[in-house]
Specification:
Number of helices of chain A: 8
Helix content of chain B: 10-25%
Number of strands of chain A: 15
Largest interface: A-B, 78 and 90 residues
Radius of gyration of chain A: 23 Å
Order of helices and strands of chain A: EEEHEHEHEHEEEEHEHHEEEEH
Number of helices of chain B: 7
Shape of chain B: globular
Strand order of the largest sheet of chain A: 9-8-7-10-6-1-4-5-13
CATH superfamily of the largest domain in chain B: HUPs
Strand content of chain A: 25-35%
CATH topology of chain A: Rossmann fold
Structural class of chain A: alpha/beta
Shape of chain A: globular
Distance between the termini of chain B: 60 Å
Oligomer: heterodimer
Largest sheet of chain A: 9 strands, mixed
CATH topology of the largest domain in chain B: Rossmann fold
Number of strands of chain B: 18
Amino acid sequence: MRAYKIIVLAKQVPDTRNVGKDAMKADGTINRAALPAIFNPEDLNALEQALRIKDTFPGSTVTILTMGPGRAAEIIREAMFRGADGGILLTDRAFAGSDTLATSYAISQALKKVKDFDIVIAGRQAIDGDTAQVGPQVAEKLGLPQVTYVEEIQKIENGKVEMKRRLERGVETVSCPVPLVLTVNGSAPDCRARNAKLIMKYKHAKTVTELQNSNEDYLHLYNDRPYLNIPEWTVNDIEVDHAELGLSGSPTKVKTVENVVLQAKEAKVITSADSDINDLMRELIESHTIG
Amino acid sequence: MNSVFVYCEIEDGHVAEVSQELMTKGRSLANELKCKLEAIVIGHQLDGIEEQIFPYGVDIVHVADDKRLYPYSTLPHTSIIVKLFEEQKPQIALMGASSIGRDLGPRVSSALHSGLTADCTSLVIGDHLDKKQNKNYENLLYQIRPAFGGNIIATIINPDCRPQMATVREGVMKKEILDPKYKGKVVKLDVAKYVSDADFLVEILERHMEKSKVNMKAAPIVVAGGYGMGSKENFQLLFDLAEVLGGEVGASRAAVDAGYAEHERQIGQTGVTVRPKLYIACGISGQIQHRAGMEESAQIIAINTDPEAPINAVADYVINGDVATIIPKMIKYYKQNTK
């Protein structure tokens, strides 16, 4: 039985689902620091699909690739606690301001450096942008076929991956030879929980930058246990055309950003008392809104 | 003047609803830009398909007809569009933000190195002054969408790359026949020139498509629940009210994410847009993404325990209180006072 080299594309995102009142600064801009940073939910579904392949095909490896600030190493560790073998943090100021196209360019150039992989798995979309564009754009840049909205990898046989796609109005089963890029839908099974042994094994895993700020007593660990070193790649580690990165490499520009200011309508406020509800219902029936 | 293009999705020989809506929008953009509206249809057995397309004011329809092109598959459809766009150089290209358009759009935009904005809630023509370069851009497509959890509304532009690409959800734009007798031109594409064998790597083994059971767009009354409903069981109350009133049940994204309702019931920017006669929002806080999908409802009732909920700002009636006590009262009064 052959083993597969799997790359999972993941992103650390602000938890936009739980935006509290302190998340907006007085001037109306977003206070990113007030939002918890989390593992993008659908990337966890993607990780689970990757770990299942590893379960079925012993010897397979799962590597996380994430682009973001130094702090994003947190999600690499999180993935290692759940069964990933390691990860790569792609981080550089030059990536700042990238739209989906410039992001997919940087990621695809990093994948070209990794070179040796069979399956790239990403979550369908990240909750901070909801675009679902980076997966397909990475596939295009690598010249690989893409399969989006995957709910389940059903089998891998003779180098072909068979998977079920969840579409708006139905399901589709498709087969695609490796190498390929696939994106996993939120309806796929949840990711397995952290494993206590893996937490013990990987809790000290760090990037070079994190290492510089850490307790020197532990430094010997990183020579003895190479798996604790999380590779950190900057633009200098991958082959790139600088004009294609960041703002200059992004065809889309943000022209304006407006804070959402609600112009309240004159609403009629009522209570849950019987008389209030009955009056409202009568009004709706009389105006033929209902009935 | 370069044209506005709309990619038409086909299911069972019919042009998808979202594509009809986009042709309507495309026609008005083309009028403003004084250019042609063109459509592209890719599939099989498409004879006569133009009859469904011309009435929206389409001047040219490009048809790629081959048995390998239906059902939709990413690679061949991408190859055809990319080559056609390289030849025709559209200034704007619109696609549905459907499971087809959101698969196809990014791949096409990557191949053409053109910008794509997903899930736009509004498309407007406007100018842009780039202050750094002191360069004025005329007649750009403003692609407007909520972002960052709905706390902001962003206007996105593609100043230098063409086509300016955008996807839009079904129901966001209104469809309208321009002229049933409108006549355009059909251009049949020589498919062999546009696709190669490598485009057929992905094989579709099985396919089950269903007509959506839920038809929220056509429902005169929508009873929608949010995360505040608290559980899937409590959602049953909404079904009860919807059944009595003759409406449909919708849900906010938070409720869908929490597993209270099926995905196809999701209302908002990344779900369905509805414009019913009456919208009853139950336990919905009303982030802008949700409001984008319902604020054009003729009348809105918001039932919420939070008097500060943003949904109240778009509501005609605000009921402060607990959904679980209020809905049974509404049902009771309705049953007693109607035939």
